TrEMBL record:
This is Putative nucleotidyltransferase with HDIG domain. It comes from the Bacteria. It comes from Prosthecobacter fusiformis. GO terms for molecular function: nucleotide binding; transferase activity. Keywords: Nucleotide-binding, Transferase. Pfam families: AAA_33, HD. The keyword Nucleus does not apply. Residues 39-181 form the HD/PDEase domain.
Amino acid sequence: MRSWANIEKASNAEIIAWAEEQPWAGPMRLCGQDAGWHAEGDVWTHTLMVYEQVEQLEVYCELPRADQLKLLFTALLHDAGKPATTVLDPETRRTRSPRHSIIGAAMAREVLRELGCPLAMREHIVNLVRYHGRPPFLLEQKEPEHEVIRLSCLLSNKLLYLFALADTRGRKTAEVTRPEDRLHLWRDLSMEHGCFVDAYPFINAHARFLLFRRTLSNLHYAPHEQYRCTVTLMSGLPGAGKDTWLKSHRSELPVVSLDGIREDLKIDATDNQGQVIQAAREQCREHLRAGRDFAFNATNITAQMRQRWVDLFADYEARVEMIYVEPPMATILRQNKERTDAIPESVIHRLLSKIEVPTLAEAHQVSLVGVE
């Protein structure tokens, strides 16, 4: 079962049989858990129990197959990050796995990419893995309604709620730490705000942008959408086809390109990039001060990288659209070789492991372009 097309045709039993043989399942079998929270034993035992509970959800048979697969693969991969993060707390003497959902999300992206899972579906599963532990702790949030609203822009709150039920039921606990009433609160609050099935209906894109930037306190406030310009921020690996996309879809825009600046300054990609970044920021400021639409073209593969640029653009009241381009890996490697400034394949693979695909948490508009 080497492709997503095969996964879509497989039965649930065939999928779990495939998963049993995957290299990421072995470490999960060897990873113990705190007996108070997981009396059933190791991580893989819990994973199998959650997978079974997904199938037993009251509404499971009513879901489209795509949603069933999202839940099943979230079950398989939600705790995949535990082997790499599990430690014994020296003070409490309890086993903990801090940040395991972040590691698990990256692993899920890699597993699903290798299977050829469609980009949008893959990232939905990745986000379900990343945030699977949020529903039980809703009341610990300062503004619970903002929590469900934000996550509705990244995933389906309905699927997150259903998975949380399966995750809670798929364990044996000595301590009642996840009462289902808390999970129902996630459902009820999402329904109350109209974001249980679909994303929250913001008044406009700028309201969503400001909420994620923690500068919108009133959900009913309608900020003016009077942007000085629009910045198209490209994201993707070297060789992904960002230049080609710009030529096809934004050919009228001037482009601030880190590759172009490196070429002008005769600075290699492996050298110190301080001068390159400084020059790029100044070029961006020139466009921003003039209120001129432009494109910013760089790899921009992590949220932290992108935020630094978005902060600059937002300071000048620009509208920000992000375009993430990801063809198959074979295409990326081939197109990289065809570049005059080809990057070593080892670097490409290292960057691949660091990718954080853009989400609506970051910009006014986000497009994921899965190029064949």
